Amino acid sequence: MDYPSRAGSTEQLSEDVIGQAVRACEQVGAQRIHFVTHSLGGILVRSYLARHTLTNVGRVVMLGPPNQGSEVVDKLGKLWLFRKVAGPAGAELGTGTNSVPNQLGPPDYSVGEIAGNRSLNWIGSLMIPGRDDGKISVEKTKVAGMTGHLVIPATHPFLVRNKTAIRQTISFLRAGRFESAMVSGRGRSAARCPSLEDL
């Protein structure tokens, strides 16, 4: 689902976007609902599931999620231009203890995370310690309680089209784990309503 990532706060967006996706799945009788998210989408799902109890929640795969925030927001978040470009939700993604991602707590559902370690954004990478995808450091994609974490050679915007990321996402949705040979150790967001044949 495409959504206006600059149009509201994390909580507002999660209610509108994730709430709509969940209702759409429930209307067609989904017995389990899996989520596949990119970037901010992972925080929207965490935010929604922190406030709503879903008895049919399945597995969640997050691609390049700022689960502990982003150092780029720490550096630029107070600038007017950044707030204009990133919107209210983007400005909430710092790495401080009071940032939205760090206030959500660990998930009580199965989460697999795929992080990229290549960057086309050298300016962003200068602000980020360690390996990064141009927007998020590999370390900041992790969340306590995650089921699996994977690092692949991909940049932040292209994680959603990366063949390895797609294959590993399908593996996690089906089996609850990434393919073992690849394991190193959640704005687009989508909810998937699988058929019984898929899982």
> Helix-strand pattern, N to C?
HEHEHHHEHEHE
The chain-level structural class is alpha/beta
* pLDDT < 50 stretches: 181-199
In what range is the share of β-strand residues? 15-25%
Number of helices: 7
Strand order of the largest sheet: 4-3-2-1-5
Largest sheet: number of strands, sense, barrel closure: 5 strands, mixed
State the end-to-end CA separation: 22 Å
Helix content: 25-40%
Q: Would you tell me the overall average pLDDT?
A: 87
Radius of gyration: 16 Å
Q: How many strand units?
A: 5
Gross geometry: globular
Notable characteristics:
199 residues, alpha/beta, 5-stranded mixed sheet, 15% strand, globular
Overview of this structure, please?
This protein is an alpha/beta fold and 199 residues long. The chain is built from 7 helices and 5 strands, in the order αβαβαααβαβαβ. It has helices spanning 10-27, 40-51, 71-76, 80-91, 100-103, 122-126, 163-175; strands spanning 33-38, 57-63, 110-116, 148-152, 188-192. It is globular and about 45 Å long.
